[in-house]
Design goal:
Elements: E1 5-10, H1 14-25, E2 30-36, H2 39-49, E3 53-56, H3 65-72, E4 80-84, H4 89-95, E5 100-103, H5 110-127, H6 145-148, H7 160-164, E6 166-172, H8 176-184, E7 193-198, H9 204-215, E8 219-222, E9 233-236, E10 242-248, E11 251-257, H10 269-279, E12 283-288, H11 297-305, E13 309-313, H12 323-329, E14 335-337, H13 342-351
Parallel strand pairs: 1-2, 1-3, 3-4, 4-5, 6-7, 6-12, 7-9, 8-9, 12-13, 13-14
Antiparallel strand pairs: 10-11
Helix pairs in contact: 10-11, 11-12
């Protein structure tokens, strides 16, 4: 007999709460063991119900979802999936230890609701065995680039020839919002151009880019179609669009266009990596980080086969060792490293 995943649904909205309960209760491998109307209610019920996964709104009356996570996870390290509207507090909750998030649907759109249900079910399954980590205290991050200057590791400035002749491509999914931040915040401003695909819904990618831009020495922003890839700039693929790197005259630019899902995602890491493999004639570096599934593995292999240096996040530091594991097993990874070590591995390679 299959052991069902025990899910506790935490939401102060009776409408969304019942929607989630109905959706998850239809899954043969899941059991909704209860619900909570706020964080205090959840605190009382978790020791009694022993859920495997929590779905939780961030904005709730009384104790906020962020404060709730800070109190919960040290004693009950349960994977938490945020179910939230477009809200900056999602990233603070991810910093506080939530594993992943799903955007609340537009109630007037049947297609949007169906996509929400499908995504939620997939993430509940995938994150049930995720590593729960508390990587940063929300609010502790610097809010200005002048404060961020002291964060990068001491490292001799890279020569202009390296900056102008290299493109770095990074892909991540579940757990990747914090993992990508952990890498970028340790890098100096004088880096080759970086292109990033992080599985994230439309709207959230711009807020995420703005958050990284406040913290990191690099300039970070959501990519726009036609943006030039240049040193000191990191471009993040916009949600609901596929991002590719192409040659345009003497420059490399990004093309960001709506498109079908590839490897189950839009934006897709495979799309980004494959475009770098095919279209970039200068030096290439590919980095694949924590995430469910296999998106990016084939593209990273193409990059390596086309001369790129490739890095895969190691099992111990991944929230979900899925994408990097598949890439490593198929021979796409030159070096495996922990999230904390990836910046030094990258900088040492560039120095050579």
């Amino acid at each position: 007999m299959i052991k069902k995943l025990r899910v506790l649904v935490v939401d102060d909205s009776s409408l969304f709460r019942q929607m989630i309960i109905n959706c998850l209760s239809e899954q043969k491998d899941m059991e909704v063991v209860g619900y909570a109307i706020n964080a205090y209610d959840a605190q009382r019920k978790i020791p009694q119900l022993h859920p495997d996964v929590l779905t939780m709104d961030v904005e709730m009356p009384g104790l906020s979802g962020i404060d709730f996570l800070k109190q919960l996870l040290p004693t009950h390290p349960i994977p938490v999936i945020l179910v939230s509207s477009l809200n900056l507090s999602v990233f603070d909750a991810l910093s506080a230890g939530a594993v992943d998030f799903v955007r609340k649907p537009d109630m007037s759109s049947r297609n949007t609701k169906e996509m929400f249900f499908s995504t939620l079910v997939t993430k509940v399954r995938g994150t049930s065995k995720a590593k729960v980590r508390i990587t940063r205290q929300p609010g502790a991050a610097p809010t200005a680039k002048s404060q961020a200057v002291s964060r990068p590791m001491p490292f001799p400035p890279l020569p202009r020839t390296v900056l102008d002749s290299t493109i770095i491509a990074l892909g991540a999914s579940t757990g990747g919002t914090e993992a990508t931040l952990a890498v970028l915040e340790k890098l100096p401003a004088n880096m080759p151009g970086i292109v990033i695909t992080q599985h994230m819904p439309e709207g959230f990618t711009n807020m995420y880019a703005e958050r990284l831009n406040r913290i990191c020495s690099l300039e970070v922003r959501e990519a726009k179609n036609g943006d030039v890839i240049k040193p000191g700039l990191a471009l993040i693929a916009p949600g609901a669009k596929q991002m590719e790197v192409v040659r345009s005259g003497y420059n490399y630019i990004v093309q960001c266009r709506p498109g079908a899902k590839v490897s189950g995602h839009c934006p897709s890491v495979d799309v980004l990596f494959s475009s770098v493999a095919k279209n970039v004639a200068i030096n290439k570096v590919g980095i694949i980080m924590t995430g469910m599934g296999s998106d990016g593995a084939k593209g990273l292999l193409q990059m390596r086969q086309n001369g790129a240096f490739t890095i895969g996040q190691d099992k111990e530091s991944c929230v979900v060792y899925g994408m990097p594991m598949v890439a490593y097993n198929m021979g796409a990874v030159c070096v495996q490293a922990s999230c904390d070590k990836i910046p030094s591995v990258l900088l040492n390679h560039l120095k050579k």
